[in-house]
UniProtKB/TrEMBL annotation:
Oxidoreductase recorded as keyword: yes
Official protein name in the record: Intradiol ring-cleavage dioxygenase
Annotated organism of origin: Variovorax paradoxus
Coiled-coil annotated spans: none
Disulfide bond among keywords: no
Lineage: Bacteria, Pseudomonadati, Pseudomonadota, Betaproteobacteria, Burkholderiales
Amino acid sequence: MTHHDTSSIGRRGLLATLGAATLAAASSRPAEAAAPGLPLTAQTTEGPYYLDVAQVRRDITEGLQGVPLDVRFTVCDAAGKPLPGLRVDIWHCDAQGRYSGFPAQGDDRSGAFEGKTFLRGSQFTGRDGTAAFATVYPGWYAGRTTHIHMKVFKGARAVLTSQFFLPDALSEFLYTQVPLYQRSRVRDTLNSVDGIALRAGDTVLGAVREERQRYVATLALVVDPAADPVVDRPPRPGAMPPPQGTQGAKGAPGMPAMGVGGRPVHPRALEGAARIRALVPPRTTG
């Protein structure tokens, strides 16, 4: 597996200067899963890019380059009891915001990745309810903040379909300093304005820490094993005609809005002091 070397890009300086507090969402730490009465992890839209690739594997990179990221889930019920034997799926975009398995990917919609399965896979939770994946830090695409999708299955039934969100300050640093992630335009959507992230709330904020030559994202997935929720499943790309009318027509959840001729509409990115305030929320006192 080949990953981008991040040892010389000043990560420790980032965590100090951009507010390390944003890298730890207390509600998402697996160590806290023993507390009773935990809130269930919020359900979100599945998005249009889910595929069941039927590959149980820890390493989902398929040799794809990127900043190494381990994703570690602890799956438990609301009482904090670990739930073994559940299947956890994850999927996310690559460093340039492109999903495997679909056509018309990337800023210019020219990327064709039908038949590809990178950055997708499944694991079954162990006796302690944990499931872990080796992947790369995801990129971004127009209209969405940085996110990773996940589903939890009990048998054939999906008891959780959701997304979790990574710290904006860390994402900003990687996207501007690591060549593989750099783009011709500025990321347009942050956690603070992403509609899906705002509706989901704190239960899907991943805690991130730095380990040797990689980042580690952890999240407790608190589920009701008896649940049978309705999955919000938007049409897949190409399964519906492009929106007609004025530019800025809203697309399916999890997809960039499309304008005249099916071209993606890019939201206006925050700049200057407003962007800094959004990237590094003020610390609370008391």
